[in-house]
Amino acid sequence: MRDLVEIGMGRTARRAYELDDIEIIPSRRTRSSKDVSTTWQIDAYRFDIPLITHPTDAIVSPGTAVAVGELGGLGVLNAEGLWARHGDVDEALFRLVQATEDSEDPAAAVKVLQELHAAPLRMDLIALAVKQIRDSGVTVAVRVSPQRAAELTPDLLAAGVEILVVQGTIISAEHVSRGGEPLNLKSFIADLDIPVIAGGVGDYRTAMHLMRTGAAGVIVGYGYTPGVTTTDSVLGIGVPMATAIADAAAARRDYLDETGGRYVHVIADGGITTSGDVAKAIACGADAVMLGEPLAAATEAPGQGLYWTAASAHPSVPRSLVAEAVDQELDLRKLLFGPSADPRGVTNLFGALKRAMAKTGYSDLKEFQKVGLTIRG
């Protein structure tokens, strides 16, 4: 039964929970972390760790996408970002870094990003970036917005993209538009021969609608990062992640029954800053996590210690700051797998996930989704 709270006469709201509000309960069984598997598979593509990168230029260049893929995750390049608009991305990033150093006004860096994204998309640059990833032998994934998915996808397929991520801050299977032809996600996906991951969503109903479009995966959340994303301040929209993930997992279960066995993956995107958050997201029902700001610490991240989301470059309603996230001190391998001397849970992210699974007695990700949970008092 839903936990409804009266917020005024005749008006109720559902009580929901963030990942910080819950804890994982150990079971009577433990095992060695060497006996734990973190592999997962979406469609024909198998990965060693349940990691998808948030598609922001701050952490994903073609080179970083290759590095993530070689370490067992899935790097997602933004097909509408800087690598699709500028031949010299290093110069564009230098302008952004200078803006953060020369001004204390947080709007200054956002304005530079808006100017950089005002440059037209160039398919030759997108194809070149995709080729660099494809030639390495790792799985090629790119992100497009719902508004430009139909326009860009044919060229992306021709370039060799293997997984398409259709992602907006908030996405639905039904978009009503007065001018122009809205994207019919169901027919769009039906015409493709590659898996599509779509999102973000924050509730059971929308997750179920996206699953019924034929999406192979559904993104839950909108990449919320404390001190970086401002969707809650700008639009008043928020997604308490523990509840949102559990709701989407319930939709996945019901859709599995409805279709007689079609499984749709749930990807958690938001509120995940530590290895403990990764473990709790899987425990709530996620199949994989989409990480952004935690990866900004990697020396391979192109943002040079800065972090922002794609929503920062919106021409009229930006919803992300350009934040100085961290000092870049660790290579990506150590960030993901350790060893670590930092006790805060910000390094060895997936080594810690294996340890959490081992301490609670579970040997794979699907089993770990059944672990007991408790709410903080």
UniProtKB/TrEMBL annotation:
One Pfam match: IMPDH
Positions of the IMP dehydrogenase/GMP reductase domain:
18-307
Keywords, A to Z, come to: NAD, Oxidoreductase
GO BP annotations, alphabetical order? GTP biosynthetic process
TM stretches of this protein: none
Q: What CDD domains does UniProt report for this protein, alphabetically?
A: IMPDH
State one molecular function term (GO).
IMP dehydrogenase activity
> Which family would the database say this protein is a member of?
Belongs to the IMPDH/GMPR family.
> What is the name of the protein in this document?
IMP dehydrogenase
Annotated organism of origin: Lentzea xinjiangensis
List the top taxonomic levels of the source. Answer: Bacteria, Bacillati, Actinomycetota, Actinomycetes, Pseudonocardiales
